[in-house]
Q: What sequence folds into this?
């Protein structure tokens, strides 16, 4: 794509980067077919190519963002399906991140929108505040339908709808590394996940301990990865979160040493892996951030590097694997979760349209509830069509979003793996057992699953 930036504009490294991304786009439009908002809304301006044109026009003309561009960029899920599809290697992620920052700096949103966004930015990244907000949401839930009818209050209704009826309590579990020590990792505690489902990281620490890996949790200074504010264009807050985590993990790297920084929410994983880029212009942090980013791994990536023993049980239940966008498009992790589940004795089924987002996308299901609900219903119907007894995925956002639209039990991939390798059965699937026919030859032939019995 031809661009017309002035040398003065290009002296800004952010604009220079945007220009080099724009120049790679050849307008082919292949990306439109896999873009969830284009597929749902059918408007070229809600496709990656349409958004790229809008962003180019805004940046080239040095214009402040206007309502039109804000509407279409806000509707983008940052699912990055377009990056998987693009044959020209257009880095849409960095382009839209820059556009969001530009919007945040140059556009004054309507009052209610501003309030909602700053409320989300002030609550979600902080577990204590988030926990208190969820308790309040229980009181407000009966009024959700009322809020849904008031213009500008739909995000509040969406928050109330998504808030769980009860919160699981974090158990103080002491895990001891068994056998020969094979490694030492830091496990990101995260923000929303630690409140919504502390069992995920508990399962991770248990499983790793049985495999001989020491887990460092909550090193001083570690907090939210910054993804939630990053996707709202609040760049200063995102960079502050990134610096704080880099400092916390660098102390561990230089202290006891770390083989990996393991992340169990793929949305956070995509962001931590991008720390090197986010902090590239900060001379005090560029090298450290690149070092931290290079150590970041999704839990399934890390487990795939270990030599796992035979599973302790033969679960034999059918699992529909939902690959989060941040997993398959953001981090390009596709093989490991499925292989780990199969090798642990699960029968893995693939929902149709696996490339399409479920509508969760950070705060998207709160800020764009109508599109998010359409995507969720489409995802749920594809998952339910597999006939699987359980849904497995590697991102808490997807678990909440998909779980709000189906009665099929849902578990994190690592909870299922922990169970298969000697841990407790995940709470969410306590009532699920393997039907006789699913543990028979039928399932093994269908999926190539290996069970402990084999
Ligand atoms: S990130 Fe997702 S929603 Fe946004 S343009 Fe790309 S494919 Fe479409
Ligand atoms: S597929 Fe890539 S090159 Fe083609 S229009 Fe989309 S972003 Fe541009």
A:
């Amino acid at each position: 794509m031809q661009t017309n930036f002035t040398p003065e504009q290009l002296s800004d490294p952010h604009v220079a980067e945007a220009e080099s991304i724009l120049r790679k786009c050849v307008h082919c439009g292949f990306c439109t077919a896999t873009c969830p908002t284009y597929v749902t809304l059918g408007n070229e301006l809600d496709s990656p190519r349409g958004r790229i044109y809008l962003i180019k026009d805004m940046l080239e003309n040095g214009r402040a963002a206007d309502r039109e561009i804000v509407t279409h960029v806000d509707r983008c899920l940052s699912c990055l399906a377009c990056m998987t599809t693009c044959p020209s290697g257009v880095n849409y992620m960095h382009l839209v991140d820059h556009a969001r920052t530009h919007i945040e700096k140059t556009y004054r949103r309507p009052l209610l929108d501003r309030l909602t966004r700053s409320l989300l930015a002030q609550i979600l990244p902080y577990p204590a505040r988030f926990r208190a907000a969820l308790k309040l949401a229980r009181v407000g839930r009966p009024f959700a339908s009322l809020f849904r009818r008031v213009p500008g209050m739909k995000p509040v209704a969406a928050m109330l709808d998504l808030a769980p009826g009860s919160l699981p309590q974090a158990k103080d579990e002491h895990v001891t590394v068994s056998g020969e020590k094979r490694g030492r990792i830091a496990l990101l505690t995260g923000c929303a996940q630690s409140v919504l489902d502390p069992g995920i990281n508990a399962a991770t620490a248990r499983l790793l301990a049985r495999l001989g890996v020491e887990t460092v949790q909550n090193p001083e200074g570690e907090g939210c990865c910054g993804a939630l504010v990053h996707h709202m264009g609040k760049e200063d807050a995102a960079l502050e979160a990134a610096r704080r985590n880099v400092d916390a993990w660098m102390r561990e790297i230089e202290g006891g040493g770390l083989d990996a920084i393991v992340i169990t929410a793929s949305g956070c994983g995509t962001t931590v892996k991008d720390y090197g880029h986010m902090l590239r212009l900060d001379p005090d942090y560029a090298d450290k951030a690149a070092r931290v980013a290079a150590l970041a791994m999704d839990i399934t990536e890390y487990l795939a590097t270990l030599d796992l023993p035979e599973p302790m049980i033969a679960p034999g239940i059918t699992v529909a694997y939902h690959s989060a966008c941040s997993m398959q498009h953001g981090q390009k992790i596709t093989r490991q979760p499925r292989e780990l589940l199969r090798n642990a004795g699960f029968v893995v089924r693939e929902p149709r349209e696996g490339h399409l987002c479920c509508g969760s996308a950070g705060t998207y299901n709160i800020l764009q509830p109508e599109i998010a609900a359409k995507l969720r219903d489409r995802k749920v119907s594809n998952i339910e069509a597999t006939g699987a007894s359980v849904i497995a995925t590697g991102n808490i956002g997807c678990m909440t979003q998909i779980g709000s639209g189906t009665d099929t039990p849902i578990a994190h991939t690592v909870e299922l793996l922990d169970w298969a390798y000697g841990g407790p059965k995940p709470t969410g699937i306590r009532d699920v057992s393997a039907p006789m026919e699913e543990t028979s030859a039928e399932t093994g032939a269908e999926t190539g699953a290996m069970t402990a019995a084999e």
